[in-house]
Specification:
It is built from 5 helices and 7 strands; from the N terminus they run βαββββαββααα. The chain is an alpha/beta fold. It has one domain (2-163). Strands 1, 2, 3, 4, 5, 6 and 7 form a 7-stranded mixed beta sheet that branches. A hairpin with a 5-residue loop joins strand 3 (30-39) and strand 4. It starts with a strand and ends in a 7-residue tail after the last helix.
Length: 170
């Protein structure tokens, strides 16, 4: 199973009004840029998407990027990627509560099982953001440097896992 996660990074407040709307993220109440990562069961980062402005939705990023998943694999994703499909790949996502209704106990158990795996994925995100160059607001304005910061942080995470492996996802 390959989990997918999205990660946001703070971006300084742009002075140009057009750029302000592009980088404005309603969820984070801040100006951000975001990436999507694919993580395998050993919690190694397999794929890092290009960097997008904070306003771009996670599903639109997923539609834009070509994911290197073989046929027969499973992909764990959250509700931000609802309705995203890949040929030959089984999608596992939480069950959304119906409007005005309740989830059955089986559906709640299914969501809890996926949530325990999501916690491990969020631990990978926090470990990538351990470096201050990724955690703090980005001060390097050129696009290549902005992307290079997150690439280096993901590479350091994979390097640390070689030295000190974590328990794999079950």
């Amino acid at each position: 199973m390959t989990p997918r996660a999205g990660t946001r990074r703070r971006w300084p407040h742009p002075t140009n009004p057009a750029e302000q709307t592009l980088h404005s993220s309603g969820k984070a109440k801040d100006h951000t840029v975001k990436n999507t990562v694919l993580i395998d069961t050993t919690l190694h980062i397999l794929f890092l998407s290009a960097t997008f402005e904070g306003r771009v939705h996670d599903k639109r990023i997923a539609d834009y990027c070509a994911y290197p998943l073989p046929d027969g694999s499973a992909l764990l994703q959250d509700l931000g990627f609802l309705a995203f499909e890949l040929d030959g790949v089984t999608m596992r996502e939480p069950i959304k509560k119906p409007r005005g209704g309740q989830l059955t106990p089986e559906q709640k158990a299914h969501n809890q099982a996926l949530a325990t795996r999501r916690v491990r994925i969020e631990h990978v995100n926090s470990r990538v953001k351990r470096g201050r160059m990724v955690k703090d607001a980005i001060r390097l304005w050129r696009g290549i440097m902005r992307d290079l910061e997150i690439e280096v942080a993901c590479g350091l995470h994979n390097f640390r896992l070689r030295l000190f492996p974590w328990q794999p996802l079950t």
